[in-house]
Amino acid sequence: MKKSVLAMAAAAATFPFSIYAQSNVTLYGRLNVGVEHLSYGSTPTRSSSHLTAMTSDASLWGVRGSEDLGDGYRAYFKLESGFQADTGAATDAGKFFNRESYVGLSNPRLGSLQLGSQWAPGLWQSLRADPFLRFGPGGQPYLLQVQRGYTLRYDNAIQYITPKWGGASARLYHALGESQAVGRASAVSIDYDNGPFYVGAYVEQSRVAGASVGLPGGPVSSRTTSVAASYNLTVVKLHAQAQTNRVDGLANVNGYLLGASVPVGVGQIKASYVHKDANNADASSLGMGYWHSLSKRTTLYVNVARLSNKNMAAYRLGPALAEQAALGAAGPSAGQRATAVHLGMLHTF
Predict the structure, then answer these.
(1) Is the pLDDT of residue 234 over 70?
(2) Is 123 helix (H, G, I), strand (E, B) or coil?
């Protein structure tokens, strides 16, 4: 892999780029808008409450393009931004392209080298492991992506992606510090995808603020290890994931997901059970849903989920802005339970 990375870097410096190269640019996007009803149980310090809100989950637009440089080499880029389709507001007001922004060089024999802001391996794995594709109250990010879970994105990152070898491929990441909240991070992931069967694993090592994991002082080292698999039996697709996070001086935080997708005509029934095991703060969620495809680009869906926070756990089940409207800026209370019903429409272009 080291030789391939060096070869790609050398190619970038010495390749005789042709002025006659073929190029293309594509505008694409996704609009995901729904109505979500959230109900919260009572706790010793808070009475029960409820809220109905219009929400936008992972709506985005982007531009990507590539240029054929000859001899198998290709230059490419991606610029992607998230927004709230129900209000038109940017997901992150501080970053115009707040999802991914990178440039890359690839060759089918040597692999691909990418520079910029890029998704971390936890996102790619969770897309394959989560039957809800990471959105809605049944998705796994509410428990497994949050505090002491996987990193969503690396800024100022270098990524090398190997060629595929019989369905197997690997990704190597290194993110420079540059005063980022997650800096000096490194990760490696390996995936095997062959027909109906997928299995993958990754390890990421990053520096996080001590206060974010309950420790005094400066940054500390955080390591997340995860494995996931799915198998399509035609009548049902099975999903599974297990992850663990280790921070020196603290008890490990473990989590897992079990899920299934069942095709029914032009739709799918989806189910998941997600559990997080933390010191005196366990939580679990059970989700069910039905997604109905009107076309290849348009889907109607209904998702229902139940979240159980135990002891000091106070995880969310809905979008942060919606929950703050019902619960205040502090969000859920320790041990508070929640139920969500989510109806919406997903359209891609």
Answers:
(1) yes
(2) helix
Phi, psi of 174 (to 5 degrees): -145, 120
Fold exhibited by the domain 2-348: Porin (2.40.160)
d(CA 326, CA 117): 34
Which amino acid does the sequence have at 186?
A: S
- What pLDDT, on a 0 to 100 scale, did the predictor assign at position 166? 93
Cross-strand bridge partners of residue 259: 239, 272
Write the DSSP symbol of residue 321: H
Distance between CA atoms of residues 294 and 344, nearest Å: 13
Both tokens of 15, joined, read 């390749």
CA angle 4/223/162 to nearest 5° reads: 15
Degrees to nearest 5, angle at CA 77 with 187 and 115: 35
Q: Name residue, tokens 């491929």.
A: 169
- Is it the case that residue 13 has pLDDT exceeding 90? no
Question: DSSP state, 121?
Answer: H
Nearest to 185 by CA among 250, 118, 126, 133: 118
Q: Give the predicted TM-score (pTM) of the model.
A: 0.89
Half-sphere exposure of 32 (CA within 13 A, CB side): 19
Least confident span in 17-26, 57-66, 213-222: 17-26
Domain ranges of the chain: 2-348
Give the span between the Cα atoms of 121 and 343, in whole angstroms: 29
